[in-house]
Design brief:
With 238 residues, this protein is of the alpha/beta class. The protein contains 7 helices and 11 strands.
Length: 238
Amino acid sequence: MTETSYERLAEFHDLFMAEPWERLRPSVRAAFAHLGRDAVVAEIGAGTGVGTRTIAGETRARIVALEPALVMRAVLTARVADDALLAERVTVVAGAAPDDLGLLPGRLDGFVCAHVLGHLGRADRRALFAWAGERLAGDGFGLVTTQRARTGPAEVVQARRLGDHEYRVRHLAPAGGAGGQQPASLYEVRDGDRLVRSYRFASDWRVVTAQDVAAELPATLVLEPAGDGVALVRRAVA
């Protein structure tokens, strides 16, 4: 999804991200709770900081949050600035993976790439994992989210009420995540039965399975499934 798309989507983004991150919280805790205050965790594609806040709540490590989209990064920066604990530990970096990974620290105790890999093509994912393989500490973990390969079109509908308005989103993705119809989302704002406004967003999202990630890792890293849609990356045993 392009930065221009996020300029319009950002209004709706946070309304539907709390639940996915709460599902990830136990995995975040398992991967990073042991880290001390001098450790560093990189968050690749931090968005508006919903995940940043979750990560910070489960580890004492410092966090470097990389986000390319200006409007998303503005919300991220505001969220960090408004929380004294986050402001002390979170550094926001403007950039995208894999082109701007060099802006991040040269050694990492962990990394998070959640709800992001589907925006990256195979070559970019390989470059991201190669970078992680060079910088991840020997006892460090990466946390990634994956999807199941679809056997047919799947529609997901979510809704949330704010005051008099109901915010509703419908996600429709093509089978297999590639070819045919482009994935799209329809966002609506409703006041009772009246449609206040609506937006349709085409997406570059592609389904990335755990098997895809395992095949794209360098020889120095291995993948360990850690639940439905989440996996840990660690160094291979020599």
